[in-house]
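Input:
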Amino acid sequence: MNGAESLVRTLSAGGVDVCFANPGTSEMQFVDALDRTRLMRCVLGLFEGVVTGAADGYGRMAGKPAATLLHLAPGMANASANLHNAKKARTPILNLVGDHALRHQAYDAPLSADVEAAALPFSDFVRMTRSAADIGADGAEALAAAMSAPGKIATLICPSDTGWDEGGVVAEPRKPQGPAPIDAVALDAAVEALGRGHETMILVGGSVLEDVALTALVAGIAERTGCRVAVPAANRRLERGRGRANFAKVPFAVDLAVEMLADVRTLVMIEARQPVAFFAYPGKPSVLLPDACTRLTLADLHEDGPDAVRALADRVGARPARIADAPRATAPQAVPISYQALEMAIAAALPEDAIVVDEGLTAGRGIYDATFGAPPMSWIAITGGSIGIGPPMAAGAAIACPDRPVVSLQADGSAMYTIQGLWTQARENANVTTVIFANGTYEILKHELTRVGANPGRSALDMLEINRPSLDFVSLAKGMGVPGVRVEDAATLCQAIRDSVKEPGPKLIEAILA
Amino acid sequence: MNGAESLVRTLSAGGVDVCFANPGTSEMQFVDALDRTRLMRCVLGLFEGVVTGAADGYGRMAGKPAATLLHLAPGMANASANLHNAKKARTPILNLVGDHALRHQAYDAPLSADVEAAALPFSDFVRMTRSAADIGADGAEALAAAMSAPGKIATLICPSDTGWDEGGVVAEPRKPQGPAPIDAVALDAAVEALGRGHETMILVGGSVLEDVALTALVAGIAERTGCRVAVPAANRRLERGRGRANFAKVPFAVDLAVEMLADVRTLVMIEARQPVAFFAYPGKPSVLLPDACTRLTLADLHEDGPDAVRALADRVGARPARIADAPRATAPQAVPISYQALEMAIAAALPEDAIVVDEGLTAGRGIYDATFGAPPMSWIAITGGSIGIGPPMAAGAAIACPDRPVVSLQADGSAMYTIQGLWTQARENANVTTVIFANGTYEILKHELTRVGANPGRSALDMLEINRPSLDFVSLAKGMGVPGVRVEDAATLCQAIRDSVKEPGPKLIEAILA
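Output:
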């Protein structure tokens, strides 16, 4: 057995059954091994950012890592922006990156570059395997690293000869590191803080938000103690909608976030860190909490958040809250698509059990609150601020959950970073409804430009507008095999989403914003 | 004056007058400074790979660096694949990468990552500036590094407060390091080797190929001594066509390259290194030269190739060769577009003074030889093997040379990595004719798969075919404001190119290969 086959068999035994791939010559022996063993579903991306964005969406919804197959240092680099998002989300992903054969690395061949150095800034674990005999064991170790709490990016660099040489050994799965136990002293302190009611806030993220029973229990703690609850601005996955707890997000805008947190005296953090400004601005704080606020880490990111919630509930005598149903939004009239009309249209259109991909940015900022009363859904958002995750993340989520409709809320400027993801949606016949928020501008940057004190002239604004020429997303989608439609009023938008989610396969709706 | 303005004024004084940009919040003060000073032409890309690919095309044709403006570590990562190509080409580029304000770097904000570490594998010079007072001087040093022989990738990381703080100081331009002198002993040895005629080969690259007089002199040395001449498989820029020297390229395929070099006893290298296999394969050599061949470096990459050529010519008594005109290709018949018909169509269609962008790969491999007799042209090719350079490189070349038609020879799979470059072509009304070689497959990989000994099955081939769904490049182009046409016979293709190059603005021709 060659090294490539031993690696594929090792990973398969460890539970990996999907491989998102953009392979090149140095990965052909892995393509061959995947082909011969038929142990994984292989999903092709036309660009490496699609591969990792899809692996992120898959990992968030499947709760386990996909493998990726990437091509040398430039392939690693192209993959990195969406790995950055996945790393911040703590999504488990196992990257396999081909490299030149070990004997070939002495020569400065055109594609030579330092793959390890390229991988390090965007990975939690990096290893280069050195022989066909080692690649199985290295793969098992990398997989265990990826699956360790709270979820990690593991990158295994595979020189091509370690794949094609004979002598591969299938390795036993290795046990990933589970979440670390919480600290009893921190628990006592948290219980004490909860005794002070409203001046205490629980900031809860990570795995807790993925479990409806746990979020109900968090809401029960708030009911029982009078404390407040918030969630980070963006999360790996958040279960919400009708009958489920609805927690406020820490706002993106610094001023709003400072206002929300102004009278918090103790912040109890469960799988979350203290909220900070997304960016620094002249004259504005980096830290959003008041100086006098006590930061209390009950469960750090790698610690056992579910246990923390259960222990807290037990200590304060809380039971799961019964969440009252919010009224369902009604379909909007045929009005131009203002932000508010956009929110209504989406809230009214979301089907049962949707997966909502959130890269809506400026135009989409109100949709979260507007959809509290919509049917139960999973909400997966861009976590690392590296725009261009939506089209691939939607594809990956659909592959993890083929029976659930995916609704992808997509800013137009961001869509263009990894628009190639539409092709993978078409190829896999994924039930993804992409709604493009078409305002023809990097709207967010116009706000940002004034925040640094600029009084922008024509040439500055020109750097922020993307409507010269206009992007025609319906044509772009057609070019990649995805049917599309352009809508200019909110009623048509709502109906188009309702129609699309019922049909198999992807669709793109270009919503022209007013 | 704030730091951002001092940097812009410093770079402008050093000769930088174009900035390719994909800015975000942390670069808004640079956008503002560019806006207020009007010292540079700003060109927007929808994706960072477009920005750096365009800067590469610009640098190759302008012979001086453009600036780029990139957004934190993920922006640097997205930019890196085409920086890899530029680094291998030795194209001068100056990257300005925004980062969080220094005071904000202590917090793990969502976009936080190690920008320096991300930049290092794909740069020759990396520095993070530390204050508004320093940013001008750091910019001058980075610019000098970029312009130093043979052309380098310099990356200056600019925390946002170093841009918006007052106290900026405009720095004097610093002198770049010119090419190092050649070695007299090596010159003697090269002259001696040339005395042995046919068994000696000159491998010449770099700046020599950009100078028609120098290439004629190299051809004259060959005439005078009977030696052979070859050029590397891909080069930064190569001046060729009617009346100009025509040198054979070292082939991509290992077997063909080994055959070409089999009886070379001395290889005299001028701004070139010994040719090696692009990839390693089981049972095939990494080194293409025979063991017994003497490797003689007359001018290394950073040394003075033009001086080496002149000195050699002087010593052997050579004069510039008079190059006989080759017959011009005639327009092909209306036949299906085989590789041969493709070569004929392009050879017959190329206009005077074209810039040919070569990312044609498998289908385009014969076009170089076929266009020897075409009108004089500049030939700029993908150098680092990181596919996805064509659309942006063509845009950048057109911006450097607005009066010259650009003909971009583009494989279909590769086109999809940085297809967003079409939008920049449209926005800048660049005279670029993109010819897509549409075969619906990563053709090159099918050959590679068999070279590693695989007997591919359906699922392996599925990873190499991109025609499910078919890519429709005419729709993709339309989506980005570029008019397109699909052609299925060689005569129509030839005429479409001829028509397009005469018109201003971009056009895309999707050539369906037989």
